[in-house]
Amino acid sequence: MAALDGMTIIALGLPFIAALVAPALVRRLGHNAAWVLALFPFFVFVRFLEFLPEVSAGSAITGGFQWVPSYNVSFSWFIDGLSLIFALLISGIGTLIVFYTGGYLKGHAQLGRFYSFIFLFMGAMLGLVISDSFLMLFVYWELTSITSFLLIGFDHGREASRRSALQALVVTGLGGLSLMAGLLVVWNITGVTQLSLLVNLGDEVRASPFYLMALILLLGGAFTKSAQFPFHFWLPNAMEAPTPVSAYLHSATMVKAGVYLVMRMNPAFGDTVAWETILPVFGGTTLIVGSLLAIRQTDLKLMLAYTTVSSLGLMVMMTGFGSEHAAAAGVLYLIAHSMFKGAFFMLAGNIDHEAGTRDITKLGGLRKLMPISFLAAMAAAFSMGGLPPFFGFLSKEEIYYGLWHADPWSIFMTVVAIVGNGLMFVVGFAIAIKPFLGREVKTPKHAHEAPLLMWIGPATLATGGLLAAVFSPIFHQYVSSPMVSAVSGEAEEVTISLVPHIGMPLLLSLVTIVFAVLVYLKVDSARSAIAATLTAIGWGPDKGFDQFVSGMVRLSRRVTKIAQPGQLDIYMTVTFAAVAVTLLAPMIIFDELPAMPAWPADAEIHELAVILIAFIGLGAVIAAKDRLTAIVSLGIQGFAVALIFMLFGAPDLSFTQFMVETLSVVILALVMTRLRLTLSDHRPTGQKIGDATVAIACGAGFMLYLLAVTEVPFRSYLSDFFIAYSKVIAHGANVVNVIIVDFRGTDTLGEIAVVMVTGLAILSLIRVRPGWKPGMLAENDPDAPTEEKK
CB within 10 Å: which end of the chain, N or C, has fewer? Predict the structure, then answer.
């Protein structure tokens, strides 16, 4: 195991540094700042590229430090084949996105702010995929949700953008809470908090009675992040974001975070019936739903968004299928998808930017006007459709290698894959052919080829898909095989190449192409049929989300009206009733009521006199006809307690009690003269009985609790500590003073601050004199001005 060096740590922090400097660079250089800002992710890409030989040889790079050693919490990294390839995709495609943003948002007033958001997101994704610590993983996971919220809602002046951003944050945020709970359960099962250790504890995880709970919670985080059905609706709505966001978040980064988590957990959670059932079922459903909804769309970005949903479903399905080539198929498709979908999204932005529309029915004949974009689109379509000589062909062949078996389950999942792949073939070639070929259609803007900053990205990714397939042996050695080995938990070698392999996978590929061509020829009819079906169904998860949010708002308002009606007497009654229940219920339920103390036979007359004074004061409070008399009578109870403290040898405590009671009476009297209160208590009898019941319950609860405490055998180790060390450490002979001033100095400072704030509030209440109006002050305030005094 090699350790992370300083340069790697710097590389991990570079996106956050770029986020800080981006606004200043944009103010100085304008959109040309893209050439400088692209150096930040490019350096990260080069740095991670240096690890390829070591990782491909079977090593892993680790590093970090202990954060909270007592809880085994670390800030640590783990770079193996899976995390390394993700890091390369994030930084490599991120470099192209920085270029693309400079051209797409040229002249935008908030370009600097956009760059800051995109770099923050890039840093969060890098941290997520290389995190070894559970805590790091969760923190970066949530940071991707927050930064994607900022990116999706970048155009915050539009209501649709704000809604989409909020929807993505709510769905993925709830998934993040599910992930946190799942990680805590895994921690409880294994006792480890590092992913690098977890992958070797699969037998222990699978044998645990909490396995299913942990699995469902972790999949809750993965499925929401990667838009698996029925949580798929947020991803297409996120197309409200600018196209650079769509090209980055929804091809290589955020939406693949859930797929990354599933692949990372495969060695520990895989090879069970639950794993190999839940993932294929939800993944297959997402594949079909996404591809059908993609056929329905006419907006280029929405078509691509729904095929992203279906592609994510295909990756999840293959990761959980459990056959020999299934994991390799998921990995190859993930890499291919990152390249062709990133290219497609940027090309959709090119068309929109240069032609003024993304509606595929209003586009045509752009091939001569945008030749570079056309070539890149055809390359991306070939890869998306699984045709040679592109990397998508290799991934599709591997998919059918992994799925095809003679049992009914495998046959069913193979049919699902054929339908999903065929429909994505249709969408890919529809986007590549319809806007560019045919007769030229008049568009809102006079179309021409996009500038260099906007076509360098799609051209690079399309070429990458070609080169990866042509040089597949080298690519597999350094990229595919290490990644598949990390996902499988054991060393595996990927060997598939462009050389045709006669057999069932090739036959299934031909079936897919034939099916896709037939649907493509009738794509308008298919679109109408799907639209009619969805209209007939009516309700869907997207509408359900709005209903859920509005329902939560209505529920919150009703709960608020009940819990916060704006009446102080209700708040106080509920608070004291809760205190009484908290004190009395456990003792009554668990039969832990303390024994009543016996009356002391040798009680002194002065002790009995103090108790009698307390009872007289209690009677005076109850019998008082006005509030001021009740307040003064209430002080008698406190003075009686202070006398008891004095009689039993605690003069300093007695002095404190005298001061507190005196101040309480004075403060309450002052407050009462400043409030609009009637002279006497006008509560109805029923309310008085209820309040008296709560008061007696609270008093009885505290009395019984104190009696229960005094029945516990006294442990003197704290007293012994303070007696032994008060003079040695704090140089004070008065133990009580030393405890208050030294050992509990911060606590005492807090108490002093509370008293000070209370005093300031009282002073304000006494000194403030608002403009006099008749009836403004209390009826019992002798200083209230009259009309004659005015």
Answer: C
